[in-house]
Amino acid sequence: FKIVYETYRKTEGKNNWELYLMNADGSNPVNLTNTPDVDEMYPHASGDGTKICFVADESSPLPQGRDEGTGRRKVRSVYYMNINGTGRVKVADNARQPCWGPDGKTIAYLKGEYDRYSTREYATSELLIYDLQTRKHKAHPNKSLHHIYAICWSPDGNWFFAAVHGGMGYSDTILAFETDGTRVFDLGRWRVKGCRPEISLDGTKMTWGETDWNLCVANIDLTSSSPRVTNIREVVTCLRKSKV
User: Fold this and answer.
1) By its UniProt entry, which Gene3D superfamilies does this protein fall under (predicted)?
2) What is the Cα–Cα distance from 97 to 201, expressed in whole angstroms?
């Protein structure tokens, strides 16, 4: 097994975010990106383990007439690449926090809420789905998706899960919403709260960060008309000076 992760460290003398791949026991870390002038973050591996999607914060020329002194601006874009760091392909500019479709042939991502660069992870305005073969982008049928982040796609392809902050009538919670419909369910009814939801490959378990200092796991039933969460338990906790 391998783990792909983001890490902040020096690259060629510059501090920046890079994507690394290591063995599950922590051995043999390899820098996949090695780009001192670009910050790569939020990696997600495809279900078959052959590709990674991620975001990159990089400089881009300003439009004509918008010279702000440097002639450059920062843009957050979505990319994907092979698991070994080769074959990097841009999916979209002003895009955020992608995840893989269960077939490994599509990538869901969030459009940035503003044209101007923002580090706020919830500054999103809609969800789109990108087809790797056709290179076409399709908007999700629910046009009210707003201020969601940390999305994941269920293995059966029927559900998205995401955290929401100050959008769609919610304060802070984790939502489940249909892939091809408009129904939305607040998982707070099952005492699920926090962010960064993920579903296991067999579709029977869910994990999320209840806070920045503890992780939870629960059983999830995706066979009913709406997701049902049971048997919540805390599996990791750490001191406030650290984060998980």
Assistant:
1) TolB, C-terminal domain
2) 19
Q: Does residue 129 belong to any structural domain of this protein?
A: yes
Distance, CA of 163 to CA of 148 (rounded, Å)? 6
Q: What is the three-class DSSP state of 1?
A: coil
- Mean pLDDT per 10-residue section of the chain, whose length is 244 residues: 95 94 97 96 97 94 49 85 98 97 98 92 96 98 97 98 96 97 97 96 97 96 97 93 80
Count, in order, helices (H) and strands (E) of the chain: 0, 19
Question: Which SS3 state, helix, strand or coil, does residue 9 take?
Answer: strand
Residue 65 CA from chain centroid, whole number: 33
Q: In the chain, what percentage of residues exceed pLDDT 70?
A: 95
Measured distance CA(44)–CA(64) in Å, rounded: 35
* CATH code for the domain in which residue 157 is found: 2.120.10.30
Q: Which domain holds residue 192?
A: 2-204
User: Which of these, 95, 136, 137, 90, lies nearest to 112 by C-alpha position?
Assistant: 95
- List, as one string, the DSSP characters of 58-94: EEEEPPTT---SSSEEEEEEEEEEETTS-S-EEEESS
Q: Per the domain annotation, does 186 fall within a domain?
A: yes
Is residue 148 a contact partner of residue 175, using CB atoms and an 8 Å limit?
yes
pLDDT tens, position by position, 139-166: 999 999 999 999 999 999 999 999 999 9
Q: Give Cα 180 to chain centroid, integer Å.
A: 19
